[in-house]
Amino acid sequence: MDKMIQVALLVLFGGCGPSAAEVAIEDCGSTATDVKFSCSTGCTGDVMEMKKGSKETFQLSFTLGADAAGLKNNIIGVIGENMEMPYNSILPEDLCSGLTEGKCPAKQGDRLTFQHEADILDTYPSIPVTIKWEVVSGSGEKAVCVKIKSKLV
Asked: What residues form DSSP beta bridges with 39?
């Protein structure tokens, strides 16, 4: 392939600067539809790779399945098959405060997009962790529940 074509493809498909890419997610009981997760780096394929000592931008988009006055993030680290450890300090609890699309209160059918830049600390263990991200309404309904396989490098 001609060098100019290679450079053009690299520029067109995100080889320059930070761009969001999607990684495989597993739904774990969302009432929302069209749930999409993306991140700024290491976010392709089946496992998200996060580099210690870096910053990572996470984005979660979905179409709300029921009215919600407010929405809260709940982040859980799943180690092994079933060992769950709450880890809510990586994202703000109030999802509504980080919306780049939509607003709260939100109505059924509204498209919401949350975005946040998080520090990936050097102190995080270098083990595979499945991130379970729940978005919970004021009534306790899980608007979103997704599992994202991750690895710290």
From this structure: 21, 58
Quote the DSSP letter at residue 94. B
pLDDT of residue 102: 97
* Bridge partner list, 38: 22, 59
CB-neighbour burial class of residue 63 (10 A; exposed 0-12, middle 13-18, buried 19+): middle
Cα gap 96→123, rounded to integer Å:
29
pLDDT on residue 20: 57
56 neighbors 26 (Cβ within 8 angstroms):
no
State the virtual CA torsion across 21, 148, 122, 54 in degrees, nearest 10. 10
- How many Cα atoms sit within 13 Å of 84 on the Cβ side? 10
Taking the C-alpha atoms of residue 145 and residue 29, their distance in angstroms, rounded to an integer, is 6
The residue type at 81: E
Residue with tokens 């495989």: 24
Beta-carbon contacts of 34 under 8 Å, excluding residues fewer than 6 positions away, are: 61, 62, 63, 111
User: Structure pTM?
Assistant: 0.82
Break the chain down into helix, strand, coil percent, rounded to 5: 10, 50, 40
How far apart (Å, rounded) are the C-alpha atoms in residues 11 and 46?
Answer: 24
* C-alpha span between 91 and 141 (Å, rounded): 19
